[in-house]
User: What shape does this take?
Amino acid sequence: MGDVMDKLNLVNKLNDILINEMPEYKIEAENFEKDYVSQRKLLRSLMNVRPPVKPSTEFLHLQNELLSMETTEKGIVDINQLQPISKNKRIILWKGDITRLNIDAIVNAANSKLLGCFYPCHNCIDNAIHSSAGVQLRLECAEIMKKQSSDEQIGNAKITKAYCLPCKYVIHTVGPIIQGHLTDKHCKQLSNCYKSCLSLAVENNLKSIAFCCISTGEFHFPNEIAAKIAIRETLNFLEKNESIEKIVFNVFKNKDYEIYKRLCFSL
Assistant: This one.
């Protein structure tokens, strides 16, 4: 009971700070119930819509404390505890929450603005990663995009710190959006996502990386074809490069798990 009250106090303080920052959301915030679950949902919503501006020292301290508690409660999954899915000992298939992984880098399926998802509590991996990492992640992404002065191109990738996540880095890549028929161009763009992420990993001396199912969710890339591209590009990379020791295919849905399990079985 005490832990719940401690977290509720933290959440209430954080919500007060954000409402003071963004008074335009005060009326909406008053519609939320006062229990922990409702107030935590409010906090995530406010963090999702918050623009990339420097937070106060007080907010960062409270936010980091809360997210650290939540990470511990969810349970950290160490990469060294996961078993290979095939004869290739460098390839791992794991079904679960990518924000729990203790690994060098996780891959985020980002949008072209590279600032995270602004839809409150949206059920996409971009939202989940930014929500668990903290508001610092959006701020660093904004600095990167300001220097770039243009949207991120499909197939490219950028690397940032991971902040409150148990991994060391987040690699953000923009996958193709499928509207209508799948084309060869879409497949080449998705291939480039994997190539770009792996190249960044090598450049930054990373030994392990976890890929989400890029473009298969909100971007509607066919799951099976996406998995084949992911596996093909990973195998091509591993044949030429020995610096990365472990690559995780991280899936969240049973459908994707079964696809990867079948495709990886004969590797």
Q: What stands out?
A: The two ends are 49 Å apart (CA to CA).
